[in-house]
Specification:
Blueprint: E1 2-7, H1 16-30, E2 34-39, E3 51-55, H2 71-90, E4 95-99, H3 102-113, E5 117-121, H4 125-132, H5 140-153, E6 156-159, H6 162-170, H7 196-200, E7 205-210, H8 219-229, E8 236-241, H9 245-257, E9 264-268, H10 275-281, E10 284-287, H11 298-304, E11 309-312, H12 315-318, E12 327-329, H13 333-345, H14 347-364, H15 367-387, H16 389-396
Parallel strand pairs: 1-2, 1-4, 2-3, 4-5, 5-6, 7-8, 7-10, 8-9, 10-11, 11-12
């Protein structure tokens, strides 16, 4: 197939959606499909067979595009629309693969060019907008109707978790391919020599958080919880990997105000290729997320590491996690603190949860399943195009 892939993201960057997009493009490339990717100006270029990247114009005031709904992202989407139009003017495509808000471009393309589209549903756009901008709540009914419309008009919807699958079903999707995220590949050639315990002087246990430091991730909850447990036996330090300079300064000041600065280590970003090495050094892995309905991509790598996970008992986590594979607590400081204290004090519990989590990944969320599901979706779309070939050929004649 000749595919127009609309990716309204900084590509490539080492964070959730761009990582998932690159993994998907690698499989599509291996299948021999021709892919033109329309994306943002930010991100590191990468090369794959049969793939070409087309970026929006780089403007000085459009930099540091962060996750979630924002004015900068809207401006980038506006520019991306013209990149997409230019590609449509020059090339013929069999199908459009649209990520997140790119689906609205895809709907217009279907109407004007009669090209079918696949909706790559990495998040609920409505939920994301309202979580980021609560003032948009009055528009929620209209936004949900729009979301249902783009779901209903898609040839297929590809949700990344059960919560999004439920939204696709309620939107009367014609076809659904559930494509759960998977652990990031563990490349033995990409190990790091960085010893966090030695570097940071950690004498007891190490609890590790990896990811961006946006408010919905619950870093405030994490620090407030740690302040309630200060003294544990053995002692525990919290290491945070990720975030930008402003985030790090903000949470450094908060840790100081809570008098836990000696136990909190905000390291900033580290290469994603070294993730497995950092997870292996930890005793407990943390996901204190307080909002959202999609499962954090890091959860799959967390579980695959064989280390116990402490997470909030919210649907964002429980569509994958349960009490046999992780420690789940209410999303409030006293409960999260109690969960941390229990894991710190019980080595057998840590071992049991870690083993159960690793087994879950091996059975249900491995890379082979990811590739097979994506291949099934591509083969289905190819067959659908063949079955519609007479009208398709006429359209392009």
């Amino acid at each position: 197939m000749r595919i127009l892939y609309i990716a309204p993201q900084p590509l490539y960057q080492e964070r959730g959606s761009p990582i998932a997009i690159k993994m998907m493009l690698e499989v599509i490339s291996q299948q021999g499909h021709e892919v033109d990717v329309a994306t943002y100006h930010e991100g590191t270029d990468f090369q794959l067979d049969h793939m070409r990247l087309y970026r929006i114009k780089s403007l000085s005031f459009l930099s540091n595009i962060r996750p979630g709904f924002s004015a900068k992202k809207l401006a980038c989407d506006f520019l991306l629309f013209f990149v997409v139009l230019n590609l449509l003017r020059k090339n013929r495509y069999d199908v459009v693969h649209a990520v997140e808000e790119g689906v609205f471009f895809a709907l217009l393309i279907k109407v004007l060019w009669r090209i079918p589209y696949i909706y790559d549903m990495d998040s609920s756009l409505v939920q994301q907008m309202i979580d980021t901008k609560p003032k948009l709540q009055p528009l929620a009914p209209f936004l949900r109707r729009m979301e249902k419309m783009v779901i209903r008009q898609a040839a297929a919807v590809v949700p990344v978790c059960d919560a999004l699958g439920d939204i696709a079903k309620s939107g009367q999707a014609q076809k659904i391919f559930m494509l759960h995220d998977v652990p990031l590949p563990n490349d033995s050639n990409s190990q790091t020599d960085e010893d966090l315990r030695a570097q940071l002087g950690i004498q007891g246990l190490m609890a590790l958080y990896v990811g961006n430091l946006e408010p919905y991730q619950g870093i405030d909850l994490l620090l407030d919880s740690l302040a309630l447990v200060k003294q544990t036996d053995p002692p525990v330090d919290v290491v945070v990997i990720g975030g930008n300079a402003a985030d790090i300064q903000k949470y450094t000041e908060k840790a100081r105000s809570l008098n836990i600065e000696s136990q909190v280590h905000l390291l900033g970003p580290r290469p994603i290729a070294h993730l497995a090495s950092y997870l292996a050094q930890a005793d407990i892995l943390l996901s204190p997320r307080i909002k959202g309905n999609n499962t954090p991509m890091k959860i799959y790598s967390y579980l695959d590491s064989g280390k116990p996970v402490l997470a909030t008992d919210l649907w964002t986590h429980t569509q994958v996690l349960d009490h046999e594979t992780s420690m789940l607590t209410d999303a409030e400081p006293a409960a999260y603190a109690a969960g941390l204290k229990q894991l710190v004090s019980d080595e057998n519990l840590r071992k049991r949860l870690g083993e159960n989590g690793k087994d879950l990944i091996a059975r249900k969320h491995n890379y082979t399943i990811f590739c097979n599901t994506l291949t099934e979706m591509l083969d289905w779309m190819s067959a659908k195009l063949v079955s519609n070939k007479p009208s398709h050929a006429l359209r392009h004649s």
